[in-house]
Amino acid sequence: MKPDLDIPTVVRSPTQQRGKSFTRRELSDYYRKQYNASYTERTLAKKASTGEDGPPFYYLGRYPRYPKDLADAWIRKKISRLVRSAAEGKAQIAAQHPIAA
Question: Exposed, middle or buried, 67 (CB in 10 Å: 0-12/13-18/19+)?
């Protein structure tokens, strides 16, 4: 099941792109520096190849490009609200991602 994200399902064509886009290496560095999040190039590639929940991208030739606005929207959905204990954090995660029975 795909998560409910405010990300368009139809990605704009490269000619419609406005603003910055990243290569996988650039996006990995950006996430580390901007959000202190560890998503390696390899992780991003795996998410793209398996269809796992990953940031949306388009191809420029044979190279994937990640639009900055959509990459930011995706990572922000991964960040939880502030919690005061690990138990509260686990409960929050469990409520957001219930296990299918």
Answer: buried
How large is the average pLDDT for residues 12-30?
Answer: 80
Q: What would the pLDDT profile of 34-53 be if each residue is shown by its tens digit?
A: 999 999 999 999 999 998 88
| Residue written as token pair 């990995």 | 28
Q: Parse the chain into domains and list their residue ranges.
A: 18-96
Question: SS3 of 52, please?
Answer: coil
Structure-token match 């603003």, residue found: 19
